[in-house]
Amino acid sequence: MRPFLFLGTRAEDEVADGEYAAMLSFGGLRAEELVRVRLEAEPLPEVDLDDWSGVIMGGGPFNVSDPPGKKSEVQHRVEAELRGLAERLVAADFPVLGACYGIGTFGTLDGGVVDRTYGEPIGSLPITLTDDGIADPLLGVLPREFRAFLGHKEAVRALPRGAVLLASSATCPVHAFRIGRNVYATQFHPELDVVELVRRIEAYQHHGYFEPDELESVIATARSAVVTEPTKLLGRFVELYAR
């Protein structure tokens, strides 16, 4: 089998390692089958699509809607590299699962708009599949309604031209979409369980997702959530595209 390429952007080692471990576990992959590149630490290497079964993008604290003057040099570089790769992936209709930051990467292509209109607080919320989502080869592995972990400052306000809406929540119209047949992006996190969510809450408590004095209540709410379905996406993505 050709490996999958995992692109991460988290600078905190413990959180970055937890995200990668979750992708391995829920994808049913060994380390040699999911090759990680940490873009916050190194430039994107040359990517020959023939070398890979597919691409998985993780999340992180970067937001494409951040004011340009407040973005670091690293963030500007990462955004430029991912946009160039995303355009190639869409043109080739190459298998992609972009989780969280994938929305920012693919949601701004070809007329798409990502801004702060539909942010949602850290926690779990009900997600509903559209009819296209139910019929979709990847998202269709999930029930029509399910709870998912999330937490985001930005979201898609207008889909890229030709994109197919697959899932929504009551407070965020675009939680998953598909471009072509094989390029997917989700706003919710398919890789998260409670342990990893709490780890991220603690790591990003000063990043503006909630007030610092709300830390314990946010953690308590996260620990009380029952989220069982979204991790199925990773195994299904591997099942569909491993070659």
UniProtKB/TrEMBL annotation:
SUPFAM superfamilies: Class I glutamine amidotransferase-like
Cellular component GO terms, alphabetical: cytosol
InterPro entries named in the record: ChyE-like (IPR044992), Class_I_gatase-like (IPR029062), GATASE (IPR017926)
Highest taxon in the source lineage: Bacteria
Domain (Glutamine amidotransferase): residue spans on this chain: 46-192
Gene Ontology terms, MF aspect: transferase activity
Span of the signal peptide: none
Keywords tagged on the record: Glutamine amidotransferase, Transferase
Protein name: Glutamine amidotransferase
Species this chain originates from: Nocardioides guangzhouensis
